[in-house]
Write a structure and sequence with these properties.
Elements lengths: L2 E2 L1 H7 L4 H9 L6 E5 L6 E6 H9 L5
Antiparallel strand pairs: 1-3, 2-3
Length: 62
């Protein structure tokens, strides 16, 4: 599956990267996954092109 950067996804969704990351951490943006490894403080964001496209096609409805 093709992956997309947070910067590119935020641009396509017309929002800033910080908002996109927050919504992904809250599991309110179904375009991929925000993963935090045990003992770490940073998240890793995995955004799939197909999930992003489907979300955009649905009109941005969660």
């Amino acid at each position: 599956m093709e992956r997309v950067t947070t910067k590119e996804a935020a641009k396509l969704l017309n929002m800033d990267v910080v908002t996109l990351q927050f919504l992904m951490r809250q599991e309110r943006l179904p375009i991929g996954y925000a993963i935090k490894k045990d003992g770490k403080s940073r998240y890793h964001y995995i955004i799939y092109r197909s999930m992003l496209d489907a979300f955009i096609q649905s009109g941005g409805k969660c």
